[in-house]
């Protein structure tokens, strides 16, 4: 608990640092941020050497500096800006929601960093063209979010705190409500995250429900990655297994890794796909292999971010992840993040390695890593909920994830990097990694048998960047409260059948499947 409280305090400073972005309401929309003082404009690459542009017709997301992606949710007639979070399962907003009704219950959602808490209310909402009556949400009074902002959780309903608290299907998250309200709506979502720095493909991002973005139809022909099931607790996330030797480092070699998830194939890491993490959270071995051999890289404890590698912004690193036999190269603009650009004591800027050794509050025994925005900008993701929809008969349809690689054109990615980070002068041929022997020894962690505290909290990083500051003391008090309530929750599992006669043809909800 001490660790958690401490890191929350630490995170507060970053929050102060970058909150400016949100407060000013600067809409990035694929544009460079003005304060980066960069000579390159936001416009798509001009005469372009025949490289194709991918610009979806619509854009439903607002990209704030590649560290937050917001969608609009209209609630009781008022438009709220909600962070898209596949790592949690509740809708929470700060500020008055017109026409909302009280349920008399309250709830607290614990994220890896930060919380949301307050009364559970219901109201009519509109999201992505769907209208839902009496959607349950948390009217967040924690003070962590600006008025008019919140979080929309797109995770499995089994992890919903509101649902748990209301103990009936009226507490279901937005997506379950949508899928159940019209059986013809296919029960999948897709998410495309844009890259604010990208000179060739400027778009903020999109989220769709039950349909696929134009020009990205091929996602359905990608391998179906089985969602690995978490049997105990409410720690189910959208997670799947990497291939053996599924992480290729900047030297082109697979990184030696071993899964710490119990009863699983040690050669395959279990990865959670979480749009709520600005920096992907990876085993230290992977971060070491990505960054430790970069001349000038340092492993530092950065205020507001925690322990992370920093490196010169002009170092191009090519790394790749493999799922289902398909390679997902990571754009070199995503291996280090410049929108969080920092200056050292001498005034030199450095970039943050966007694959961070997993912070303690984000760890759990049920997965090895969390692939957040820095990975997801490189893959169009389809999540098919299968029978993970509340009320579905168990074992009828397994949920799965499909990923369409977006960074296939390595020449274009290289061009982008040279243009953005190297002022257009390609000197990457001179770059060499330090010898492999400089790698620190690989860590070996033994998973604890007990469900750790951290897996009861919902990982959620960008919160720190989006929210507004609050006294650390309040947070610590809140944490204590959260620990209490999550302990309590553990013994209050949900066993409610869906109300009879409503929302056929799904059979009764079968809790054994999820817990
Ligand atoms: C969200 O709604 C606001 C206000 O209605 C609008 O100006 C904005 O363009 C919308 N944003 C997106 C990403 O649709
Ligand atoms: C249900 O969904 C289908 C397919 O998306 C759509 O054609 C139909 O209009 C919807 N029905 C209602 C009542 O919204
Ligand atoms: C879709 O995927 C198939 C198989 O991988 C490939 O042959 C085809 O070229 C792809 N189509 C597009 C438009 O990318
Ligand atoms: C990082 O530094 C902060 C002080 O800025 C300290 O409180 C924290 O414990 C440090 N974290 C680690 C993991 O050393
Ligand atoms: C990264 O990949 C691109 C495209 O394959 C290549 O041109 C570039 O030299 C690579 N950079 C490094 C540092 O390996």
TrEMBL record:
<dbReference type="InterPro" id="IPR021109">
    <property type="entry name" value="Peptidase_aspartic_dom_sf"/>
</dbReference>
<protein>
    <recommendedName>
        <fullName>Peptidase A1 domain-containing protein</fullName>
    </recommendedName>
</protein>
<feature type="transmembrane region" description="Helical">
    <location>
        <begin position="460"/>
        <end position="483"/>
    </location>
</feature>
<dbReference type="InterPro" id="IPR001969">
    <property type="entry name" value="Aspartic_peptidase_AS"/>
</dbReference>
<comment type="similarity">
    <text>Belongs to the peptidase A1 family.</text>
</comment>
<dbReference type="InterPro" id="IPR034164">
    <property type="entry name" value="Pepsin-like_dom"/>
</dbReference>
<keyword id="KW-0378">Hydrolase</keyword>
<keyword id="KW-0812">Transmembrane</keyword>
<feature type="domain" description="Peptidase A1">
    <location>
        <begin position="69"/>
        <end position="393"/>
    </location>
</feature>
<dbReference type="InterPro" id="IPR001461">
    <property type="entry name" value="Aspartic_peptidase_A1"/>
</dbReference>
<dbReference type="GO" id="GO:0004190">
    <property type="term" value="F:aspartic-type endopeptidase activity"/>
</dbReference>
<keyword id="KW-0645">Protease</keyword>
<keyword id="KW-0472">Membrane</keyword>
<keyword id="KW-0732">Signal</keyword>
<dbReference type="InterPro" id="IPR033121">
    <property type="entry name" value="PEPTIDASE_A1"/>
</dbReference>
<dbReference type="Pfam" id="PF00026">
    <property type="entry name" value="Asp"/>
</dbReference>
<feature type="signal peptide">
    <location>
        <begin position="1"/>
        <end position="25"/>
    </location>
</feature>
<keyword id="KW-1133">Transmembrane helix</keyword>
<keyword id="KW-0064">Aspartyl protease</keyword>
<dbReference type="GO" id="GO:0006508">
    <property type="term" value="P:proteolysis"/>
</dbReference>
